[in-house]
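Slide 14.
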Amino acid sequence: MNLAPLEPARVAALRRALDQLTGGRAGVMSRRPIERDTAQKLAALGYIGAAESGVARTPDSGWRDPKDMIGVFNQIRRANAAVKQRRPAEGERIARGALARDPDNAFATIGLANAEMEQGRYRDAIATYRRYAELVPLSADAHHRIAVCFSRLGDVDRAVAEEDAALAIDPRDAEAHELRGGLLAGRGRLDEAVRELRTAIEIEPVNALFRIGLARALITAGRLDEAEAEVRRALELHPASADAHAASAAVAAGRNRFAAAAAEYEQALRLRPDYDDVRFDFARTLERLGRREEAAAEYRRLASNAATPPEIRNAARQRLR
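Slide 15: predicted structure.
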């Protein structure tokens, strides 16, 4: 059965990609450079080898028939949807099924890696992202996601190295600049961090989270006026952002305006009740205001909640002694 009529959008996208590769003529390679997005689409279908080698291919030389790949693409779509809907184990199972049918499918490979990362299996995810990078060498995103995994494992040096690799491929990868800036800030390299974070914002000026990250680095550097301006802009972009209100609280605390800080922390917690590190900061602020019973209640909530990260739970118990 020819499924191409049932998937006109995919067929059209594939034809455009192949026209760029071949110059619109069967069996002939175009001399034009291939765009990164096009290369990724072709990689998913097994065409990337031809794109990189510059050798003309014929229909019987191993290319996959696009209409035969529609079932695989449907699996990939289901896998991605499962991960986005916070069902990563299901997404992993579906992605593995797609890879069983098409082992070199780049889209299925990155779908599997995303599912592994969402389950906290960062080393497995790193290996799968590296496999994706082999399939799509021009993917800055592969290196960025490896950096995310290393950062969650606490390996800052490797995370920074992966972001360096991402930015060598795509200097305008805003997420790579943002994470690299955050990692450098954690190492105390604040001037470099601020430069990276400002670059991310120049690329994506309406990204509220990027502005919040910059504000936090500026707070650490003691540059409170600049931090306050970034928080204000973040709140304009996203008034219901718990992160923005928490950053606003941190600015107020840095100015010793603890009543204002407490109010902002409360607003952040109304928006996100499970924001445990903010709840801990809120409790510390209540202590500074002399509201010790309220502070103790917040510490007890953190200390007794099994879902609270262990380091915050232990710190709360210490404050209760």
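Speaker note: Confidence is low (pLDDT under 50) at residues 21-32, 41-61.
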